[in-house]
Predict the structure.
Amino acid sequence: MADTNEATTERPNRRKVREGVVVSDVQDKTAVVETVDRVRHRRYAKTVQRTKRLHVHDEENQMNVGDRVRVQETRPLSKLKRWRLLEILERAK
């Protein structure tokens, strides 16, 4: 009985959080962040890197190219923007 009670207290559809590097900040209030996922190949069991380019909402234009950032999934803000800035982990050198 305790298992069903614990399941209701947790939120099953949590929003995704990713870390990545800013590769473009040309647009106003938008930056492009590249994230790297490491997955094992199903057949060859070798680790493969897959990259995604996420369009991130940045209200105060505080991200610069090269920054490491943490972003969170959100509702659609435009045609491509579905992520928002949580925090800047490390500034570009």
Summary: The mean pLDDT is 91. The longest strand covers residues 30-40. The beta strands are 17-24, 30-40, 47-57, 68-73, 81-90.
